[in-house]
Amino acid sequence: MRRLLNVGGLWVMLGTTKFDSRSFEHNDEVNVAFSSERTSACLTKDFEQDLKCCEDVTLETWRQRPLFEEIVEPIA
C-alpha cells in the first residue's frame, strides 16, 4: 500500500512506511521525497482519483462484513 504525504503543495513523500515503531525499527520500508510543485500536483491528482474509487468503512459496516472475511482476517 502506498502512502502520500503532501506539505503545502511544495514537498511530497511517497512510500510504504507507516507511522509506527515497527515500521521504523523492524520493517524494510521505502520512501522517496520530492521537492517539486509539479510532482506534488501530479501525485495529489492521482491520489484524489484513487479516492473516488474508495469506500468508507465505518465501524458499523465493518461489523457487518461477511463471516468468511471475519474468519480469514486473523490468518491473512
Taking the sheet with the most strands, its summary is:
3 strands, antiparallel
Tell me the span between the first and last alpha carbons: 15 Å
List segments where confidence is low: pLDDT < 50 over at least 5 consecutive residues: none
Proportion of residues in helical segments: 40-55%
Beta-strand percentage range: 15-25%
Main structural class: alpha+beta
Number of helices, where a helix is a run of at least 4 consecutive DSSP H or I residues = 4
Order of helices and strands: EEHEHHH
Number of domains: 1
Mean pLDDT over the residues: 85
Shape: flat
Q: Tell how many strands the DSSP assignment holds.
A: 3
C-alpha-based Rg, rounded: 16 Å
Question: How do the strands line up in the largest sheet?
Answer: 1-2-3
Give a structural overview.
With 76 residues, the chain is α+β, with helices and mostly antiparallel strands. It has one domain (3-72). It is built from four helices and three strands, in the order ββαβααα. It has helices spanning 21-25, 37-52, 59-63, 67-72; strands spanning 3-7, 11-15, 31-34. The protein has a three-stranded antiparallel sheet, covered by helices on one side.
Task: Give a quick precis of the structure.
The protein has helices spanning 21-25, 37-52, 59-63, 67-72, and strands at residues 3-7, 11-15, 31-34. By secondary structure, it is of the alpha+beta class.
Question: How would you describe this structure in keywords?
Answer:
single chain, 76 residues, alpha+beta, 3-stranded antiparallel β-sheet, 4 helices, 3 strands, 42% helix, 18% strand
